[in-house]
């Protein structure tokens, strides 16, 4: 076990302000056939890693996702998908429109990583403290536009409701033998803002705009 290489991986990642998830995404985009479990074990010093492999990983982490993709995709090669950042407008259909974004991902990567049509992928920005400690203000979340898909229990969604755009967890429950939906801020200090609605009231008050996929610290 080479603790020196493990420390080098961890120090490089932390210096760049990347989470382990962020680092792993960059390695995947670079085409490295590495599991998340292997990466974590290397960084913790629980599995041997060669100096050359550690150096290669550090060099990849030091590049932005755009730089990595630019190296992989030749002119005239694979199409890139611009991923818009959504904003909310009460008067606009489902309440969302895309704004300019500097994030571009290979369409094949979006299909293989998330199993969705590339044009459904969006970015939503976290505002406020209601989702602490799961999400922090200023973080950006990759999400998939909701297009009539069934809602999933205990998943974070972008909603348009009485107070405008919000990012909250949805939880399914039953009261008096009837199904209900909890609109659930994860921050325990905002427990009094958790709402329980029957399905009809939820559909009348809220439009589900997108489902969160993963947090990206460094978009």
TrEMBL record:
Coiled-coil ranges per UniProt: none
Keyword list, A-Z: DNA-binding, Transcription, Transcription regulation
Domain HTH cro/C1-type: 9-68
Pfam families on file: HTH_3 (PF01381), Peptidase_S24 (PF00717)
CDD domains: HTH_XRE, Peptidase_S24_S26
Keyword Transcription: yes
GO molecular function annotations of the record: DNA binding
Keyword Ribosomal protein carried by entry: no
Protein name: Transcriptional regulator with XRE-family HTH domain
Organism, as annotated: Salinibacter ruber
